[in-house]
Amino acid sequence: VTSSSVLQIGDNNRTYKVKICCINVDPLKDAQAADWLKLNLPRRSKVNILPKGYDDGTLISEVIKIRTSQDIAVEMVKLGFGEKNCDF
After folding, report:
1. Taking the model in full, what pTM does it have?
2. Of 10, 24, 42, 62, which one has the greatest count of Cβ atoms within 10 A?
């Protein structure tokens, strides 16, 4: 977790900078959102990414936690960290 909406995801030999799509994080809750992500997606967490686009070296993607099938953006909106905004 590098910020409240950007993750670094790796496979066996590559790493990707991934922005969680479909959420605008409230700047006042930025630190809380980042802390929540670190708790729910600790290192070595397994996720599926569903790419939606690419922006300036960052993959924009839906992020789904594998064991729970939890859509991270949807959960963040439910917790009040931001609002849903999906242009894809």
Report:
1. 0.85
2. 62
Per the model's pLDDT, the better-predicted residue between 29 and 86 turns out to be 29
Please tell me the distance from the alpha carbon of residue 88 to that of residue 85, in angstroms, as a whole number: 9
Beta strands in the chain (DSSP E): 6-10, 15-20, 23-25, 47-55, 58-65, 70-71, 82-84
Residue with tokens 């729970």: 68
Own/partner long-range contacts of 6-9 (Cβ < 8 Å, ≥24 apart) = 6/58, 7/37, 7/41, 7/63, 9/47, 9/49
Reported as half-sphere exposure (CB side, CA atoms, 13 A), residue 7 has a value of: 28
Q: Under a CB-based contact definition with an 8 Å cutoff, are residues 34 and 47 in contact?
A: no
Tokens of 81: 């960290």
